[in-house]
Amino acid sequence: MITQGHEITAALKLKTHSVVIGSGAGGGVAAYHLAAAGVDTVVIEEGGYFQAKDFNQREEDMMPALYRSAGRQTTTDGMIYVWQGSAFGGSTLINTADATPIEPEVLHHWQQHFGLGTLTEESLAASYSRVYKDLNVHRLEEHLLNRNNSVLLQTARRLGYKTGVFDSNRKGCVGSGYCYSGCAYDAKQGTNLTYLPRASELGAQIYTDMRVDRIERLSTGRYRIHASVVERGSRAYRLPVEIDAVRIVLAAGTVHTPAILKRSGFDKGLPQLGRNISLQPQIGLAAHFDASDKMTSWRGAPQSCYVSEFDDNRASHGLGGFRMEGVGGLPGILAGFGKTIGKEHKRLMSEYPHTQFTALLVPDQPTGTMDWEWGADGKVKPKIQYTPKAEWVQRFRKAMKTAAELMFEAGARRVTFNSTVYPSITNRDQFAKIDEFPVAPGMVALTSAHVQGSCRIGLNADVGVVDQNLKLHNLDNIYVVDGSVMPTTAATHTMIPIMVMADRAMHALLHQA
Ligand SMILES: Cc1cc2nc3c(=O)[nH]c(=O)nc-3n(C[C@H](O)[C@H](O)[C@H](O)COP(=O)(O)OP(=O)(O)OC[C@H]3O[C@@H](n4cnc5c(N)ncnc54)[C@H](O)[C@@H]3O)c2cc1C
Ligand code: SF4
Fold this sequence. Notes:
26% helix; binds iron/sulfur cluster; 6-stranded antiparallel sheet; 513 residues; 12 helices; FAD/NAD(P)-binding domain; alpha/beta
């Protein structure tokens, strides 16, 4: 059963066996497996419940409804927008449905540098099979590539680079291009259409518009969750909720899972909590073509191909290289997050129909830290501190140069980089300038859709927050199954890596029980 906040009219007290906090990639998988194993399960989601009919394809409505802080959550210096979904389905509701595995080199890096011997390709294989089947993962049909993506793919192929079309978790996609705003066609197979409805059918009780504030450890060793029913939209407090449970599965995402642990006082003995954060910041490189060459970036599957020629060097440190990906931009996202101003911004928007966008996926080192403040209204204010390392900045600039070169090869007249101060590039002679591109607050706007770390896996509490089975080091019966557990960036898109880790952990848990 799914109960929305507005249906609750009085304070609530519940008892259950397991509570899953958060309904995104990790939470959805956990809820399903618990319910399928016959465990009495409650799922709590702070965001609202939305269905296909609610996705009106207007960004000004959908960003505030579906994104954390209407999509305007940033690092404390304002340089990086940290995008997270916050609704029934979490970020899987608003992502672009690219399904990518954790590369073997990254697993090897975790084994060698963190001693995580049980996270092997073999131990994850069954989880991949289940998740791929559950989400209908398959190679994206090429007719769903818009010109924005195919110009990148074809040019890279012509140059002999390694390329690919993404695998995707869609079913019956009509190529509307609105993935970032929720799928009005029930094509994108997020947890909202897969794991959560199945969990509900199997008996899980799912509550939306309900925020977990803190967890209390009772003298019996059980837990009491203190939560609030909140207003849809404003998230203002409405009613108190108490839930007694034996087991807690945290899946509130990389920013909010550690916040709940900290507020509950469970951070004691966990020095790594809120540390080791990777953002994998991205820049939208904009290549302007002749007006007759329509890129139609707002239609088709927004992010559908990649160039992996430079996605190398991982074996040495698990984080090397870079990848280029075609990325569709809806006009509101471009207008709202573009760092250009005045005439330059007007020009960017008027050239939008014939502008191609490339995202640069440059895996980063886990250098970020997090802290939180709580307002009198119970709302948490995250403070995400993140300074990229010099080595990353160098690799990022190299990626910018390579992508710019590719776009000139494709026939672009001008390339811009979402910076207030950095000028457009109009020919190859200007590439050297990219070596000075300012990666600094106020100079450039970057975006992170892949926030990871903060409760990383480690062999003990000195080096990690959870063990290899994703159980909290310092308390029994508390598990974390979201993006926060990644020891380093998964060096790819994060939905499948998170789901696979959650699936593996839930299987281990339920098999042992
Ligand atoms: C715009 C965008 C595009 C992306 N595209 C892709 C892609 O194409 N492919 C890919 O692999 N990955 C993609 N990602 C990343 C991927 O979707 C996320 O990494 C993944 O969904 C994160 O899973 P999670 O379980 O950590 O958290 P989420 O899926 O973010 O879910 C966390 C949930 O917890 C809820 N929550 C938080 N605090 C509380 C609380 N106190 N009480 C109750 N509930 C709470 C939140 O409201 C949220 O719904 C994208 C992400 C974004 C934002
Ligand atoms: S492009 Fe496909 S998956 Fe994305 S919103 Fe449109 S129909 Fe849904």
